[in-house]
Amino acid sequence: MHVAPPSRQPEQRRWPAWTARLVRFAIIGAVLTGGWSVLALRRAGRCDEGRLQPDRASTVYTDRYGVPLRIDLGADDQWQIPVPLTRLSPWLIHGFVAVEDQRFWTHHGVDWLAVARAARSNLTSGRVVSGASTLEMQLARLAQPEGRSWPAKARQALRALDLESRHSKEWTLEHYLNQVPCGGNLVGVEAASRAYFGKAADELSLAEAALLIGLPQRPSTYRPDRYPELALQRRRRVLERLAEAGLISPERAQATAKLPLGVIPIPAGAPRPGLPQHEPLFCNAVAATGAEPGGTVVTTLDRQWQEIALTSLRNQVRKLPGVCDGAAVIIENETGAVRALVGTLDLLAPGTGWVNAACRPRSPGSALKPFIVATAIDAGLVLPETLVADTPLIYPGYRPENFDGHYRGLVTVREALSRSLNTPAIRLLQAVGADYAHACLLRCGLRNLSRRPAADVSLSLALGSGEVTLLELTNAYAGLARGGLFFPPRLVETGAAETRAVPVFSPGAATLVIEMLADRPLPGASRLPLAWKTGTSNGCRDAWCVGLNRDLTIGVWLGNKSGRPAASLVGASAAAPVVGDILSRIYAGVAAAPLPTPRGTSPTTVCRASGLPAGPACAHTQISLSVTGVPARLCQHCPRSTAQPNASPTPRPPDAAERPRILLPRPGTYLAEGDTVRLTFSAAGQEPLLWFVDGEFIGQFAGRDAVELRRGIHRVQGVRPAAGNADRVTVRVD
pTM to 2 decimals? Predict the structure, then answer.
């Protein structure tokens, strides 16, 4: 049997070990090199768009409706006002695309047709005659500037592709138009439009837009304020290009090219007149509030009301001999928004023109009396019909007198406030305590009063011995209109009312004070419901008047910034007519707002002989208003023999006439470990008292541990319910 030999397989050739290793290293090297190349390209092609946001753009202050008041220089002393596409003229939007990048809406960041055409032109000419830059590439160059070279152009193309992959065409066009150089220190079409033509970029005509479209090619060469002939030639070429693109007809292009430039002339070294600089003192006050620089700051100013206030002030000052200046503030009560702030009548006045009188501390005269009365009402000391003495007062080194030098004996608190009598106000201030009243005034926002040393707080505070600003004072009266709630005035629109409200007076006390201030009609505005108060500083150096209704509070100051006195500087005759004129102009042809809605009051029976809540011995009584929840002291003036024969008064407890005595807290200063301190409240005896802190009822008890008080000065009051008499102590928490 024949057995075939086994078939022989061809011998396989084996690579040497070192060759296999070499191949593997080569493959790994190629992969790493490719990866590094990709990473390098991605890094080179990443556009740092953060650089498109300026360190600080120009700050644009506008009124409440968005109309620019002032524009400040931004970073590097450049004018730059970023705006959205919706606030740009269509001529600018379509014109820039037609002239700079006609296939902008269809390519993907790089126009390859333009690149091929540019390459052919450059090779044919032997030099660079065309760059084929798209708007994305130009924007990338604005973000990361570098010289002109082929590698730089390649990087710009990569960065343009990066921008295109992450943003819309609208985003690119908006940022380009806000970054494009327009000559000198003008960046972006909005700043250029305002500087060259004095108008916003959405108000430009075809001729004006064509001029701006031609600037970016050579901003320094085509500046219309320096080289008008070259600017005209460039504008003509832009118009021809718009006609070629079909945006306008050739006839319109030729007609528009014949128009003058229409550029605002700018003298050498002068500021840009087209950039608005209205209401500089108001804008300075806004900047002083800490508003962030850069971007748009929408202020609370109403230009129409500002003009009304300025006109009324000027008309009145012309009638007053020896008076040169004035200020006015209009505040919207509900929001605290400052709708007008006039700080001067003449910015060019030597030395004082730029002094903002509305924010400068001055003596308020009698304008603080309503707040002292409100403090006394909340302390349970008086009601509007309570009688106080208007008789001469003599203190060591101090002898206050009424403004007219006459005294009227016993008068009601209502009459004393409406007539602005001095001695009754000082008696009320003495009753509540000058330190306590001073603390309440500080909580009302009259912060300039804090400049006085604590030892200098005296009874003269009622007559204006401290200093306040017109803005502070007007806002304090607006707090009364809000029912005793106080918060800082707003100069910037935030879209919401201030929430950090501080309750200083009860709504009832604020209501009673406003009702007393409205007893007399304001001269010249008798048809308008208005509560108002005047003030005249010592020596007739300042005349004040503040008036309020439900919606608005208006404050007026007249005087001389130098402090020079004038016989005509009397609040009632100088400042009050201005408040009336402003209100009459604001409410011309419309129904005037009423007084603030009464709150927190209730009817009570008062004694006709004292004006205090009637006691069991009071024979003659009447109904008056009192503050709900604040017990006022009962009348102690009527002897029992004057009671009506048939009257059956409620027998008083044996100790009703005895004044309660607070044991704790003791008067003095307490140290708080944080913002608050816990103190024990107690009084002599076992009878529960009605306890009040700063006029707010906290409960009825004989003693309580851990009553929490915040930092500040507090008036603690314990009232015996049966008799209405009370004991008071003042404590300070530091």
Answer: 0.74
